[in-house]
What we know:
Low-confidence stretches: none
Number of domains: 1
Distance between the termini: 41 Å
Order of helices and strands: HHHHHHHHH
Oligomer: single chain
Largest sheet: none
Strand content: under 5%
Amino acid sequence: GRAPADRVVVNPEAYAALGDLGKQVVLTHETTHVATRSATTAATPLWLSEGYADWTGYLGTGRTPAEVAPELTRAVADGRVPDALPADEDFGFTGDPAGLARAYESGWLACRMIAERWGEEELRVFYRAVGAHRSRAGAVEGALEQVLDTTPKEFTAQWQDYVRDQLG
């Protein structure tokens, strides 16, 4: 479908401070949001929409998980593997930049895991399936079962193991 008023707006001062790779990742991330806007609904959790945009942004850059996810790498080194995927509130600008970074990094690793284990096309199908629900309740759960043939509990455990394996 068509989504109105799709555009990318960047902070010129922050953007100017980025290197070439950073600029590429940011623009790819933001244009991914535009490209997926019609499939992104109130049913789509931020871990999925931001994780998918980051997954697309870092695709093909050659960056390792530890390079892309330094805050989550530190947490894992300290024995703090997240208990769950980040909630929408974890993506708020609350003055905890490390916590915000871990939320983005966690979503990115979840999408990366789906792409590696089930395939890139299944990640896209999963994204659309979540957004096709009318409400948040049951959206991720239904898509996990229908598209990835797993449960939320199994998926979370697999993701935690993946986080440990990639960053530990």
